[in-house]
Design a protein that fits this description.
Largest sheet: 7 strands, mixed
Strand order of the largest sheet: 2-8-7-6-5-3-4
Number of strands: 13
Shape: globular
Order of helices and strands: HEHHEHEHEHEHEHEEHHHEEHEEHEH
Structural class: alpha/beta
Oligomer: single chain
Distance between the termini: 32 Å
Number of helices: 14
Helix content: 25-40%
Length: 387
């Protein structure tokens, strides 16, 4: 339990976007931005907008911003600045990185994904299987939608080259044991390829302590602008031939995987987002999210069918559920009429929904640190009325 209390009123005062009746439980699809992120983007465009590498003032400022953004990325991920890369989105970066890695693969090589994965960490491997004839295996889940580690281990072999997995499932909130997955992958000489998109706003990432080989995430899921961020171990990235234009620099090694001109204004917003999270501290964020998650689970109306872990251990506060007799789209629409924002569908968690047999998907409510007890109660009241 956290010993640092979060001043939620002070937090919300930093977000003009939250100054409305609508309760945002759509964080898994993208969080709101604090004003300091928005201001950083507009300030860059007003005062420093330029391309890099020129001798004049705005270009020099942009050079400095690019360096600062990679330093902040390193501090957020727990690595060196040169091992980070920015891109259009997590999915775009993952297709690029997997394509570079695919140059080392042979027909019959194997990749293991999981039934908890977002398709952004599944489809790239399926496309490589289509192109090169590699084999993609899918590790299963337990009845409460935890990762089935025994089944994961059973899917490993001397042909396994990658284990791709989520740090937290964007569908049902399950947070697998990262170190355990990494150790299983490395035990057969495979890479541990982590998707931390959904985990990003819910806890600290430390790629060095976790010993993952590749990790991808999305700043717009942790209060920043729409873009992607990736980490790769230096010794690994140095062995891959990147897809890039010839004049683009090879060093730092992460820059090999940044195509074209960066979104400099978004890098400014990214720096502000990381600084915003640092200003609160993970201790306070985790404690507040834990309390709200427990409040939601304790008050969930009886008819609601929750998929996944029923406590807060081993998960983040993202909840997947359905109401008997109502389609997910109907529930989301009726909650929106009550000024409560939730998602519905499969949220690109194709394997999870296949496992659950949910053709229409489910309703998803995600809690982040700027949510309040009153908002959770409003969500629960709305569900009780609909149930």
């Amino acid at each position: 339990m956290s010993t640092t209390a979060l001043d939620v009123a002070a937090v919300r005062a930093r977000f003009s976007a939250l100054d409305r009746r609508l309760a945002f439980f759509d964080g898994p699809g993208g969080t709101q931005c604090p004003d300091e992120v928005i201001d950083a983007i507009s300030t860059y465009l007003r005062t420093s907008n330029a391309n890099i590498g020129a001798p004049y003032d705005t270009s020099r400022r942009t050079d400095e911003l690019v360096g600062l953004a990679h330093e902040r990325a390193a501090s957020f991920l727990g690595c060196s600045a040169g091992e980070t890369a920015f891109g259009q989105s997590m999915t775009a970066l993952n297709f690029l990185l997997t394509r570079a890695f695919a140059r080392t693969l042979n027909r019959g090589d194997e990749v293991v994904v999981t039934k908890l994965d977002h398709d952004g960490n599944v489809a790239p491997w399926l496309e490589i299987a289509h192109d090169l004839g590699i084999v993609v295996r899918v590790a299963g889940v337990t009845g409460d939608l935890e990762l089935d580690y025994a089944d994961l281990e059973a899917n490993l072999s001397e042909r396994t080259r990658v284990v791709a997995f989520p740090v937290a499932a964007n569908s049902v909130g399950t947070a697998p044991d990262v170190r355990r997955v990494v150790e299983l992958a490395h035990s057969v000489g495979a890479l541990a390829w982590a998707d931390a998109v959904h985990y990003g706003p819910h806890g600290p990432i430390d790629v060095t302590a976790w010993d993952v080989d590749v990790l991808i995430c999305s700043p717009y899921k942790f209060f920043g602008p729409h873009m992607g961020l990736a980490f790769g171990k230096r010794e690994l990235l140095e062995t891959w031939r990147p897809y890039k234009v010839r004049p683009a620099a090879n060093e730092p090694v992460g820059h090999r995987f940044e195509l074209g001109t960066s979104q400099h204004e978004l890098l400014a917003g990214f720096v502000a987002a990381v600084d915003y999270v640092s200003s609160l501290g993970w201790d306070a964020i985790l404690g507040h999210e834990l309390a709200l998650g427990e409040r939601f689970l304790a008050g969930l109306p009886e008819p609601v069918e929750l998929y996944g872990i029923r406590g807060m251990d081993g998960r983040v506060p993202t909840f997947c559920f359905n109401l008997p007799g109502r389609r997910p789209a109907e529930v989301a629409t009726l909650l929106a009429e009550r000024d409560v924002a939730v998602w519905h569908g499969n949220y690109y968690s194709v394997e999870t929904m296949k496992y659950l047999g949910l053709d229409d998907g489910a309703v998803r409510a995600g809690i982040v640190h700027y949510n309040t007890e009153d908002e959770v109660d409003r969500l629960l009241t709305g569900l009780a009325e609909l149930a």
